[in-house]
Write the structure tokens for this entry.
Amino acid sequence: MVIRPASGLAEQALASGHWVKLICGASNQDLASIADLCALYACAGVQCVDVAADPAVVRAARIGLSWSLARGASPVWLMVSVSDGSDAHFRKAQFDPLRCPADCSRPCMRVCPADAIPASPGNSGVDEARCYGCGRCLPACPLGLITARDHVLARDALAPLLQELAPDAVEVHTAPGRSLAFAQVIEAIAESKVSLQRVAVSCGLEGHGLTSVDLSRELWQRHGLLRRHGFSPLWQLDGRPMSGDVGRGTARSAVQLWERLRPMAPPGPLQLAGGTNASTWSVLQQSADDAFPAGVAFGGHARSLVQPWLSQALERGQPLIEWQEGWEQALALARALVDPWLQSPCGALPC
Ligand code: SF4
Ligand code: SF4
């Protein structure tokens, strides 16, 4: 049974700068971790979890969300991510392990934040379910054996898939110059007739050689299209995609993109993403801008923060939600990340 969250809490959070979303990863299919992550961050107070548009992944996310709901957490929106074209969030790394020299020190394995490349050589290459396409292993192989493969959904498969998944919200990853492809995706979403609280648009500047003015123009085009179909937008500003676990410096990218876009962005909440981590809150406090974004989405950092507990739970042969000691320690870490955003935007008063 799908439990539909009321829109009120999430909408209030968006309106008051308290919005926090967990990004599980648009191509992350590690089902056991996804159920645990969704349960954990829902209990920590996020209002939305964003997962791959994949029936098995959505089922896993709902298991975690139902578990958290039964333990008193607030209802959480389930968002699925799709793309209107080639996008780093929708790719998988791959290599043929039989071509790897036996004495390779496996630098690919050491740089992978998702433990998607096994430590021991043998017949296994990238664990497809765990790989979320961050791309860090690609330049790490001295022999250039690793390649990336896109897995973008066929356009005509989108409407029936959304009917099956019945999410509360959809996020469309787009890029400058793809307004026609974006329009086709929005038409497919409309055709599904799934009742959506929001349609989020994820877009950034990195790698596109454009200015903030160009990006703003692109977002305005998309705004017109969303409104024509009666969708309420949510703008996800992707500062430095998939880098939140790298370090404090990446937090600035997301905040700077918001500072530059804010004066010329179309109507709708603006949410930080791409490079967000535990430093994002303090970086934002130092901003000269006296406005405040609608909130934040945490991806790689939220996952790597609790990864040791997820891995230990796996080694113990049980989900994290069933291992009380590990659960409590992971929940404390998740809460420390989320809590500042659930306070007032000035950081002084609890809600
Ligand atoms: S480093 Fe990134 S792209 Fe490579 S296997 Fe790991 S998650 Fe996938
Ligand atoms: S670094 Fe390259 S050669 Fe070495 S294990 Fe990884 S893919 Fe194989």
Q: What stands out?
A: The two ends are 31 Å apart (CA to CA). The pocket of iron/sulfur cluster (ligand 2) is lined by residues 95, 100, 104, 106-108, 141, 143, 145-146 (CB under 6 Å). Residues 7-87+152-342 form a domain with the TIM Barrel fold (CATH 3.20.20.390).
